[in-house]
Amino acid sequence: MPKIDKTDLDNISLIKKEFKLKNITNIKIKKGNYEIELSSESKSITKNVLNSQNIEEKRKDKNTTKENIIKSENIVKSPMVGVAYLSADPSSQPYIKIGQHVKQGDTLLLIEAMKTFNEVKAPISGIVKEIIVLNSQPVEFGDDLIIFE
To answer: What is the pTM of this model?
Structure first.
């Protein structure tokens, strides 16, 4: 019987993030003889949930007016279609972390396209504000990957 390894645990963490980002309600994953099934709240939404979502959206709107001013040159976009990797291999540290100062030309992440790993380098020097892309996440041309302060 296969065992759950570190990669599986990392993938579960990423899946949990995707649940929150994309409002997924159920997912089932099989690997060998074991399977993992994750589910969030039921599809029937009550009025209380709707009201709390509306309140949360209003709070976000107020906060985004102050923080929504992000210069386009501070956003690193995907130069190609592929799979993004935040580190050189699963056992190594990520290239960057939030709050890290990065110099222009430093490697931020890798994008695998057609079995070739392409480095995405920092277009400017600055501090990493947000890492939008998840490890092993498919990306499209022009997708936002990283935001600098």
So the answer is: 0.54
If we measure between CA atoms, which residue out of 41, 22, 40, 29 comes closest to residue 4? 29
SS3 for 32?
Answer: coil
SS3 61: helix
Give, for 51, the enclosing helix (H) or strand (E): helix 47-67
| pLDDT band at 102; cut points 50, 70, 90 | very high
Residue 143 reports pLDDT greater than 80: yes
Domains observed in the chain: 1-69 (no CATH), 72-148 (2.40.50.100)
- CA–CA separation, 8 vs 34, rounded Å? 12
**28 HSE (CA, 13 A, CB side):** 2
Q: What is the pLDDT of residues 107-124, one digit of tens each?
A: 999 999 999 999 999 999
Beta-bridge partners for 5 = none
Q: How far apart are CA 32 and CA 39, in angstroms?
A: 21
Q: Say if residues 79 and 111 touch (Cβ distance below 8 Å).
A: yes
CA–CA distance from 148 to each of 21, 70, 98 (Å)?
21, 9, 9
